[in-house]
């Protein structure tokens, strides 16, 4: 079963709107990574969260980690077409060497 | 180079042929990872290297898949007797270090798109 669930799976928003993407883990989160993927560019690292309650920002993107809920949220303020892409959350494989990724959220921003 | 590079960027091959995919990690990164992303699927972990050794090979889909890393740098993923289900984007990532506590941030290459006809 999928250990990292992302919601929504896809999202279409009008430019300028705010949006939130969630990543929920079936296991305790010790650290969570957010990446953005565009065609032909591989995955671009956005930020890493390691502590419960931690919040980080990268330009207009903010991510939070809620350890109790085993969840992280990624919030984009005043979205722009350049934000379009697939957002992936990833986590260390809970004591294994495997690195687990969520199913991804495909974001489209309409100009 | 400044980032992780992979070659080739695209590879089209016939079923049954062998292919080699190359990954050049960021200089100084000791950990290297291979992933596979199939159409409509998420990222699938394949193998991880710490230096030249691979502590965990259990993610490799079958014995047709193998990987090696030499000099603690370049890695090659080899797929023998390719099948159509091997068609995917193969992504490589590297990180500065990995210890028993947790991972370091992984930086990804652009991927190799493999198409098996």
Topology overview:
The complex is a heterodimer of chains A (111) and B (117).
Chain A: E1 4-7, E2 10-14, E3 19-25, E4 32-37, E5 43-49, E6 55-58, E7 61-66, E8 71-76, E9 85-92, E10 99-101, E11 105-110
Parallel strand pairs in A: 2-11
Antiparallel strand pairs in A: 1-3, 3-8, 4-5, 4-9, 6-7, 7-8, 9-10, 9-11
Chain B: E1 5-7, E2 10-13, E3 19-24, E4 31-37, E5 43-50, E6 53-56, E7 65-69, E8 75-79, E9 88-95, E10 107-108, E11 112-116
Parallel strand pairs in B: 2-11
Antiparallel strand pairs in B: 1-3, 3-8, 4-5, 4-9, 5-6, 7-8, 9-10, 9-11
Keywords summarizing the entry:
heterodimer, A: 111 residues, mainly beta, Immunoglobulin-like, five-stranded antiparallel beta sheet, B: mainly beta, seven-stranded mixed beta sheet, four-stranded antiparallel beta sheet, 49% strand
Fill in the CATH topology of chain B: Immunoglobulin-like
Q: Class of chain A, according to the CATH hierarchy?
A: Mainly Beta
Give helix and strand order of chain A, one letter per element, not per position.
EEEEEEEEEEE
CATH architecture of chain B: Sandwich
Largest interface: A-B, 26 and 24 residues
Radius of gyration of chain B: 13 Å
Relative strand content of chain B: over 45%
What percentage of the residues of chain A does DSSP assign to strands (E)? over 45%
Return the CATH architecture of chain A. Sandwich
Tally the helices of chain B: what do you get? 0
Summing up helix and strand content along with how strands pair, one would put the structural category of chain B as: mainly beta
Distance between the termini of chain B: 33 Å
